[in-house]
Amino acid sequence: MIEVFRLIFPEIPMDIYENFHRTFSGGNQNTFNVCSKCGGACEHNKIGTLLPGEKEYMAKKMGISVSEFKLKYLDILKMDDGTLIHVLKLGELCPFLNEETEVCECRDFKPIICKIYPVVFTIESDKVSFIIDKWCQLSRKKVCRNYFESAIPLLSHLPIPIEWFRHVISYDDLNFDYDQLRESRKGKNQYAVFTMRELLNFQKDEVTSYEIETYGVKTNKLGMYDIKAASSGIDLCQEIEETTF
Ligand code: SF4
Ligand code: SF4
Fold it and tell me: How close are the terminal C-alpha atoms of the chain, in Å?
């Protein structure tokens, strides 16, 4: 029998999640205005990946068990090497999106990868870089770009193994057809496992592309990042003063 090398990532401690959410609110009036006009393109095409230990953190915030949380909100992506990555349930709408109010029902403790979008990551020469995704309309507004770039130092200090980034990068910049994904769910368990091959079958062509510059911040870390609490002196929740786009 062939041994499968499956990575199990160490959980990020809960106080690091708490600190992140306290320091970076994830939106302000400027970003809200752009997202309202966009109509939530990322909600319909992108996959919401959870960081190691994030399901435990979110379940605790909701006062439910991790088992219940997984059943209600999560699926699993099985990478080619057998590594399992937890993602928000694959389907037309995120399980946390309230369809009537259009409000995210976990907004105070939402997955960090959701919260920081349009910040995305790349790896070159074993270095992780965080950049602004030009696919998102927020990338076209300087005031919004500045706001999200302010999250990059916080992200750089999260103790995320580079192997986790490598796996997520293999699908994170792709767009998927959620209708087809919903169809493919038939016959699967409520807490379903999707292989990468299945997932890649449901790719959509690029929906829209915007010609703008990207901004990168290189990290020099190989393997595990050092665990460091973010600076408590920075108030990233404050609104950007520039109000015109
Ligand atoms: S984050 Fe970007 S893609 Fe998502 S709703 Fe806002 S503008 Fe649209
Ligand atoms: S968790 Fe919230 S922010 Fe993230 S996709 Fe779902 S509704 Fe949107």
Answer: 60
